[in-house]
Amino acid sequence: MARLIELTLNGRRRVDAVPDNLLLLDYLREQAGLTGTKTGCDGGECGACTVLVDDLPRLACLTLAATVSGRRIDSIEALGEAGALSAVQRGFHEKLGSQCGYCTPGFVMACAGLLRRNPCPSAAEIRAALGSNICRCTGYVKIIEAVEFASDLLAQGGTAP
Ligand code: FES
Ligand code: FES
For the whole model, what pTM was predicted? Predict the structure, then answer.
């Protein structure tokens, strides 16, 4: 069975016919052509596929596309504008929060969601918000520094998370 879904994807309204069993991850990558969201474990363990649904992080590999009809979805492609990095992207760049980069889109989206909900999180709140994301390269310290850098940028009235 297929059904029509209507959603706002990265700020744009879309209507698509999707099979009932299509994962949001596959909808984004294969139907919407947005390959920034990564497939890692494909089983809810690594966070590489994290996107935002109404500003809350969601694992796209465990979410059926049909269940997000009517919602606002943001993938990594939503961040930054007119050639300028978002605050979180700048944080990852400045603080070297990315090495191989495979986990980075998922981390960046989890961080962006956190800062949209709480622009000035404590270190403990940052760690808690990133608890579903795994990185095999950075050791996490640089990632936490990246979020703190982004939070400082927001406090200075800088770009969006
Ligand atoms: S690919 Fe979704 S949690 Fe790993
Ligand atoms: S930067 Fe390589 S897994 Fe995170």
Answer: 0.96
Mean pLDDT of the chain: 96
Among the bound ligands, the one closest to the CA of 44: 1
Residue 53: alpha-carbon gap to chain centroid: 9
Distance separating alpha carbons of residues 75 and 141, to the nearest angstrom:
24
User: Confidence band (pLDDT; 50, 70, 90) for 95?
Assistant: very high
Torsional sign, CA 76, 109, 41, 64: negative
- Distance CA(4)–CA(70), nearest Å, equals 11
Ligand 2 lined by 98 (C-beta under 6 Å): yes
Q: Distance from the CA of 107 to the center of ligand 2, in angstroms? A: 10
Using a 6 Å cutoff on CB, does residue 70 contact ligand 1?
no
Burial of 15 (0-12, 13-18, 19+ CB in 10 A): exposed
Query: What single letter denotes the amino acid at residue 20?
Result: D
Instruction: Measure the CA–CA gap between 33 and 38, rounded to whole angstroms.
Output: 12
